Amino acid sequence: MIRFYYHPTPNPAKVALLLEETGLPYEVVPVDTRKGEQHDPAFLAVNPNAKVPAIVDLDGPGGKPARVFDSTAILIYLAEKADAFLGAPDDRPELLSWLMFIASGLGPFSGQAVHFQHAAPEGLDYARNRYRREAERHYEVLDRHLDGRDWIAGDSYTIADISAWGWLERAERVLKGKTDPLADYPNLKRLFQAVDARPAAERARRVGSDHDFKTVIDEQAQRALYPSNYPKAG
């Protein structure tokens, strides 16, 4: 059994999709980040970085519980555990390269673009433009790579495609103001639609839907989500 620490945001969504694709048994442990539950000692014992997603595999290597945090690490771990969605052995260098491209580029720049366009105070035009343009540039790189390809790495659906889906699903927030945010990236749009049409994607969207996550961004949420903006007491 896998304990899946979840909040309905792009990186946990990737893990939800892979869990649904593999059929590995799991239970959802809601972590309401707007209430600050990611800072609770019990969760910090799972992920010292206070971020979701994270998992605890109760049947880890050697039959011992194993914690894994960071969405990309989790995708690799679960794909290896299930022996699925890793592509052909010859494609492993490409798979790892594009996974890291998403993990260190497309994902973080998309996240910062969302933050500065939707959450940051006014008067930060340089930061807004910087992160929005870098998000667009990463879209462009991946769109060019997908020209003439069905999937990101090799000839089959892999965790690279699953990883991209998590953020492309939020493209409307990343590229604020565009009603069809992937229109300028036809290959990315095709990839997203191919992944999104899979039955597991529909199931992944329902993960955690029975939990009443906080939706309001009030001072409690601001302090929980952006603790570095507030001085420490004492």
From TrEMBL:
Q: Where is the GST C-terminal domain?
A: 88-225
- GO MF annotation list: transferase activity
Matching InterPro entries, A to Z?
Glutathione-S-Trfase_C-like, Glutathione-S-Trfase_C_sf, Glutathione_S-Trfase, Glutathione_S-Trfase_N, Thioredoxin-like_sf
Q: Which residues form the GST N-terminal domain?
A: 1-86
Q: Name one Pfam family in it.
A: GST_C_2
What CDD domains would the database entry show? GST_N_Ure2p_like (cd03048)
Q: Which SUPFAM superfamilies match?
A: GST C-terminal domain-like, Thioredoxin-like
Protein name, UniProt field: Glutathione S-transferase domain-containing protein
Originating species: Tistrella mobilis (strain KA081020-065)
Q: What is the lineage of its organism?
A: Bacteria, Pseudomonadati, Pseudomonadota, Alphaproteobacteria, Geminicoccales
